Amino acid sequence: MAVSNNITACVTLLALICAVPVIASGVWFASAQGEECARLARWPVAILGGLLLLAALAGFVGAYWNRRGLLAFYLFAMASLVVLLIALLAFAFAVTRGSGAYPVLGRAYDDYRLDGFSMWLRGYVSDDPGRWDKVRACLAVSDTCKKLARQAAFTSADQFYQSHLSPLQSGCCKPPSVCGFSYVSPTVWSAPAARPAADADCGLWSNDPGQLCYGCESCKAGLLEALRDQWHKANVALVVATVALVILYLVGCSAYKNAQAAAIFGRRKY
Q1: Per the structure, how many domains does the chain have?
Q2: Do 219 and 204 form a contact (C-beta atoms < 8 A)?
Q3: Which of 195, 170, 174, 196 is nearest to 183 (CA)?
Q4: What's 185's DSSP letter?
Q5: Which of 214, 216, 212, 187 has its CA nearest to residue 200?
Q6: Phi, psi at residue 189, to the nearest 5°?
Q7: Fewer CB within 10 Å: C terminus or N terminus of the chain?
Q8: Cα 114 from Cα 125, distance rounded (Å)
Q9: 41 vs 96: CA distance, rounded Å
Q10: Rounded to an integer, what distance in angstroms lies between the CA atom of residue 123 and that of residue 61?
Q11: Average pLDDT over residues 234-240
């Protein structure tokens, strides 16, 4: 029985460690998306990681001091939380599956449109005008386009066209390539004699540093692409943590059953 409890204690200690990347991912989502001016998932991931940490701590205390009630709580709570984590991962993969990026001939960077993204992501920037107004105002005072405007390396249009812009820079700091604007500087463009009527963004572009393409659909798409990239990076840590937690949970269940069987056998012996 002592051996089983020691195994369970080690398992719960490892589960404590596995909860850390989940918490870190949630904190990153909640605080590290300053440049994008949007937080697609503020605290749910961090809260889920914190609950995993508390459940694992309860399991460790139960195993170390042989408190079967705490061990039973750990197994039940951990099973529920892992299921929630798997559901969250499935949702994240589903809504970030599509991309709005499309290549442009003669450009090293991509342009962006909303059509390629999932309906849920499109709704995030389109369903609530007030939300986008806040994001737009934040982008206007951020360094996203200001840094691009200060780039001394772009002495010609060809140098700019061969640069690797971020999704936000491509979508918000310049007009879409389909509009046919002529390059003057990274955030200053000369309009053609006749703007294509097929793309509404062409009429929204402004050389005003406070306007640029912040009201464009391409800017919304660039924001979603940036958030999508962040989710994919965080998903790597979350998937690894989830797999490890499932394995540790199965080992913990086995050790708990062995401890229970040993306790029953000991009582029968006496």
Answers
A1: 2
A2: no
A3: 174
A4: E
A5: 216
A6: -135, 145
A7: C
A8: 10
A9: 13
A10: 45
A11: 87
CB 259 within 8 A of CB 64: no
Kindly state the average pLDDT of the residues 241-266.
74
- Decide if pLDDT at 118 tops 90: yes
Helix (H) or strand (E) holding 240: helix 217-269
Q: pTM for this structure?
A: 0.83
Q: Are 136 and 172 contained in the same domain?
A: yes
**In this predicted model, what pLDDT tens digit does every residue of 139-183 receive, in sequence order?**
988 888 998 888 867 778 999 999 999 999 999 999 999 999 999
* 75-94 confidence digits (pLDDT tens): 898 899 999 999 989 998 99
b or e along 220-249 (b: 16 or more beta carbons within 10 Å of the residue's beta carbon)? bbbbbbbbbebbeebbeebeebbeebbebb
Are 46 and 67 members of one domain? yes
d(CA 227, CA 214): 16
Cβ burial of 145 (10 Å; 0-12, 13-18, 19+) is buried
Domain hosting residue 11, numbered range: 2-98+224-269
Mean pLDDT of 33-40: 62
So what's the pLDDT on residue 270?
43
Q: What is the CA radius of gyration of the chain?
A: 26
The reply to whether 108 and 217 lie within a common domain is yes
| Model confidence at 4: pLDDT above 80 | no
Which of the four pLDDT bands, split at 50, 70 and 90, describes residue 234? confident
Please say whether the beta carbons of 73 and 58 come within 8 A. yes
Q: Does residue 131 share a domain with residue 196?
A: yes
C-alpha span between 115 and 101 (Å, rounded)? 10
